[in-house]
Specification:
This protein has helices spanning 6-16, 26-39, 49-62, 82-98, 102-112, 117-129, 147-154; strands at residues 24-25, 65-70, 73-78. With 158 residues, it is mostly helical.
C-alpha cells in the first residue's frame, strides 16, 4: 500500500469515525470534512465534492478503502485499519526524525510541551512493563536460543 497523504488521512478519519464502520457516500464525507473545517479556526474549508472524489479514488487505488455501488452512487468504507495505519505512521515518524530511537522523541516532546503528571505516570508504567534487557558481558559467548541452536553449534545438527 502506498503512503497516505494528509488529505487522504482526513477522509480515512471520517470513515473510521462511523459507528460500526458504516459506509458513507462521497457527499456525506465532503459534508463531514466541511463541518470539521468550520469548527477548526484557521483551517481550510474548501472540501469540494470533486476533490473528495479524487482523494477517494486515490485511496481505492492504494487499497485503503473499498467501494460498493448503491444505486447511482458509491458507498465507501475503510479497509485499512486505523490502528495499523497509526502504527505505520508513528514508526515512520520515529525513523525519519529520530533514527528509530525513542528516547530523543520523548526528550523532544517533553522539551516542547510540559509533561503532565498523568503523562509521566503513563511513561513510568510503560517502562515498568518492558522486559528487562541484559547487556552481554564483554567477551562472553552468547547463549543459544534453544536446544537445536546449541546442537548446531556443537556440530550435532545439520
Amino acid at each position: 500500500m502506498g503512503s497516505i497523504s494528509d488529505a487522504e488521512s482526513r477522509i480515512l478519519q471520517v470513515l473510521w469515525a462511523q459507528p460500526g464502520l458504516q459506509p458513507l457516500a462521497a457527499e456525506d464525507i465532503a459534508a463531514a470534512l466541511a463541518a470539521q473545517a468550520a469548527e477548526a479556526p484557521g483551517e481550510a474549508s474548501e472540501w469540494q465534492l470533486g476533490t473528495v472524489k479524487t482523494l477517494l479514488n486515490r485511496l481505492l487505488n492504494k487499497g485503503a478503502i473499498s467501494a460498493e455501488r448503491d444505486g447511482r452512487r458509491y458507498l465507501y468504507r475503510p479497509v485499512l485499519e486505523q490502528q495499523a495505519w497509526e502504527g505505520q505512521e508513528s514508526l515512520g515518524l520515529l525513523d525519519r526524525l529520530f533514527r528509530g530511537r525513542l528516547s530523543p522523541l520523548v526528550a523532544h516532546f517533553s522539551a516542547q510541551r510540559q509533561l503532565s503528571p498523568e503523562d509521566v505516570q503513563a511513561l513510568r508504567e510503560l517502562l515498568d512493563q518492558q522486559p528487562p534487557t541484559v547487556a552481554p558481558t564483554p567477551g562472553a559467548k552468547a547463549k543459544p536460543a534453544n536446544a537445536r541452536t546449541a546442537a548446531k553449534r556443537r556440530g550435532g545438527v545439520r
